[in-house]
Design goal:
Elements (H helix, E strand, L loop, with lengths): L4 E5 L5 H5 L5 H7 L9 H7 L3 E9 L5 E11 L2 E9 L8 H17 L3 E7 L3 H9 L3 E9 L5 E10 L2
Parallel strand pairs: 4-5
Antiparallel strand pairs: 1-2, 2-3, 3-4, 5-7, 6-7
Length: 162
Amino acid sequence: MKIIYSYRTLSNEDLEAICMFPQSVEELLYVSPKFKFPLSPNQIIELLENRVEPTVIVQEYTGDLIAYANLYGIEEDTCWLGNVIVSPKYRGCGTAEVLLNVMINKAKEKYGIKKLLLSCHNTNSRGLAFYYKNGFKPCDIRITKLEDDKKKIAIQMELMIS
């Protein structure tokens, strides 16, 4: 059966479901280095203070909430895509691509964005391959120190939107 998707703005009722998406400490780090495992609704709410367009993807047939992302750092014709995550049950079936296209369209239509940026951790090979396949090109690297003095390397990627 083909999955039919819809999208809408995040609501408070969605927070618990999103908190169940990250399956490990490492996976949560991919979503945001500011989050602590296990993810809680309050962590999402706190991060939203500096975000716009918090968006969820819903599976129309079941009503399942299956993906989440937002935008931030809007400056002139550039912004960042953040906190991208898909429910484990819906990974590998095109959900991430649907979410990405929704977020690209929102950035372009609502904010006039011509360049969409994102950070993807160097150990997230699946994410790096996905973004590259969808037109993002590496443009920079960011090395940051985590609380335990370990270093995190993030590949900065950009997509030029026409």
